[in-house]
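for the record, two folds in this file. i put them one after another cuz i was lazy. first one right below, seq on top, structure tokens after. the second one comes after a little note so u can tell where it starts
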Amino acid sequence: MAARRARFAIRNRSPRGRICWWHDESVGDVLTRHPRRVRCSEPLVAFVSYLGIALAFFGPVLGRLSDQLITSPTDHRPWDHLQVLWNAWWIRRSLFAGVNPYFCDMLFVPDGTPLVMHFLTPLQTSVIAMLSFILPTALAYNVVVITGFPVAGLGAYALCRVVTRHHMASLVGGLAFMLSPFLVSKAAAGWVNMLYSGVLPLYLACLLHCTAGELTRPRLSRALLVGSALLVLFTGDVTVVFAANVTVCVFVWQSWTSRSPRETAIRFVHALGPTALVAAPYLAMVAYYILSYGFAIDVGRRLNYIPDVLSYALPFTETSLYSRFLTHLNLPARVRTDLVRTDTACYLGLLVLPLALFGLVSGRKNPTVRLFTWLFFLFLVLSLGPKLLFFREGVRVGPIEVYLPFLLWGQIPILGAVAQAGRYLVISYMAMSVGLACLVSALWGRLGDRWGTVSAASVALIICADFAFVPGVGPLPPVPSLSGRGIVVDPRLRSGPTMYYQTHHERPLMGGYLSRRPDAALERYRQIPGFTCLFFGDRSGDCDRAVLLSSLRTLGVTDILLDPGDWRGDMLRRYGFCEYYADAETVVWAVPENESRCGDLKHLTLQAAFTALRTSASNSMR
């Protein structure tokens, strides 16, 4: 065995005699030669600890989770959360029907639309669908959201454990990532795809372990890497982009430090080959649907979604315990609105950041820690977006506006596919968790077990205090009744309730709220007579009554859903359409089959209005 290790060390030296990237002269192989094996109970202890801390933060709202959804503490209206409930409904419906869940024939009818660019999150939504058989739908959703926190903590724990080989230090590092404002803000916004970015550090841990050489039991390492890659693939589209970024960065780092790009490439092909084979069918399907249907991806490029320098220094996000104290700052309304956006939740921690940086510096002799230091600063700069903003205005040096590397990075296929630059900060938070683990490990080594435990507990309390958050809950919206059993038209392409309604009425929908709009289906709608006016709200289009009725009857449409006060509602009333249902969110207009249709529905309309009032009163009493 000793001879085998000697041959391996000689073979993996660079031509200049430099030790390869995963070797540290002071401790040996930092990834594969652990002082002792990881006990099975330790990851379990970590998960239970993280779950207990998460439940403590959610304690004030635990009693209301059975019929309300976790939201922001200030905006209690669920929106994107309702998309997730639709996802669960569609996963259950498609699997029981034995059809491809990545193509939906119930939205944007009659053509349907692929869901490969929508955050379908099949893993999370499948769990919600299964839990909803035994739990209320809202509670099933909330269980998955809360579980996302210990999952993120456990993923970061695994990464910190690979780097530091220290259980208690890794516990603290995982806690920092679990409570990071990035994940907390996404949980409140209902973005469960990015909430489960906690699988990203697990993937990186497996990647580092698998590319460390042949002494790492390659079959087991590659199997773990395949499993973690599948978790990334089926928990969120954005996480796939993040995983691609860290993979490229690790490859570049190893190639540079080992001075042998060819050997590094061979190791990566050997490690990622099985993963590529497993993921190839899914990626081929994604490419086919994107090329065939086309998707609009432009909303996140606006500067409203780009972080400000202030976003990193102060906790403006509404989920922060301290955001209420920042309301007294004399900021313009536009600036404040942009700073509290979910995509600008980039607070690094006035206390946590210095500790993390000190930990990265203290572990600088470890080449893997140097990798994470580089990752931290690289993605911190990229998260600032294409230009430097201060008080939501572009920073200038004289007459020249300051542009940043993301202006070019955003043009790189796959790596720059996430338009909202602030989301890349999740990789910096991951590096910060490693830095905090290194700090605790260093203190433990200097102070011994007794005072090392005290120092670890102190750092954990600082993290909890600095990243403390306040959750909120919001009621599910009332579901409108429909006048018929035909197709429903809803031109509100950014309406979460639209998707939730379909989980109840289960009618085909012309429209839908997806993460990426299908250009091909929308172009088809523009060709339908009268839809330029009715669906796209263009007054210059053909708004003739006869044209609209002919198209709607030909398509089999029985109901049209609009916002209260929409000018198209007044037009439909003049054309003899019946206002069948109305609440604060939605007005249902029944398509008349003949001239007496609306009159026949008046008594049903009153009944629907009474039902809406009763539902609204019930929600207010809750």
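(here's the note) second protein begins now
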Amino acid sequence: MPRTAERSEAVRGAAIIEDAFLSYIKEFQRFTLQARLRFEARDWHGALQDSADRLDVYSSLVAHTVDHLHDLLDEHTRDKDAWRAMKGAYLERVNDRTDSELAETFFNSITRRIFVTVGVDSDLEFVAAGATQPLTRMVKTDRQVRTIGNFCMGFFSQGGFKLRLPEWQPLFMAYSLLCFVAEWCKI
């Protein structure tokens, strides 16, 4: 593929991926707002369905985007030079976003479907520095059991949830105790 054509395809491919990512964000936000209403209404079955639907949205948009890129790139779909250029063009589009890491992960999901990557291909994928560092546990001591319960109550009340806190306090305290037991037992 000539260099100018490669750049043009890269820019168009990056735009297709960004559009799909923005659609994902929009759908995720819609489900998240709906989750709040379902939680307040104690519609647990609806919340569970929304959770499954939210996961399906990601997979569906990734699959649709892969198909769209196959149509755009045709025989160059698995051309690594084209994808390196597309990665650069995509980075230009999403680099200033506050959720740029999520946008990069979405891009990686696309490349992994096309190239069936095992391990990491840093030429084609976005790789965060220090991404292999282990996560630390949030709950470390028994003193934090009450703190987590208070955090849960504060989170839901400040988040605009319409809850009568005395009614939910036992649930939050039970959650705190479970977190403590899980930490203590190293679960």
